[in-house]
Amino acid sequence: MNSEKNRKTADLLTICFKAGKAVKGFDPAVEALKKGTAFCVITASDASAKTIKEAEFYCGRYKAEHFRSGLSKDDIKKLSGKSAAVIAVCDKGFAEGFAKFLR
Q: What is the fold, at CATH topology level, of the domain defined by 4-102?
């Protein structure tokens, strides 16, 4: 996690997790998209090509933005206690915050 963009992502994700506004894991993220509670999806830098393609598909289908982060699954584990390649952000304000530097 060396770049400014990664630091900002990590800081905002930490706040998002503490506020209970992020869902970790592919299946829970897709469920949040289907329910309309996810405003964006963030994928880890080391997520598989298949995972990224499927995340983009579901984001397109349910009208949510998809962002690729510079954070690895291990970085996400350090922030949240659980390794995850996919995170759904379930708060419009947080999603807008990520959009400012990940778009």
A: 60s Ribosomal Protein L30; Chain: A; (3.30.1330)
Q: How far apart are CA 5 and CA 20, in angstroms?
A: 22
Contact 94, 67 (CB under 8 A): no
Mean pLDDT per 10-residue run, the chain (103 residues)?
85 96 97 98 97 98 96 95 96 96 90
Give CA–CA dist 23/42, Å, rounded.
Answer: 10
Residue type, 25: G
CB-based contacts of 81, cutoff 8 Å, min separation 6: none
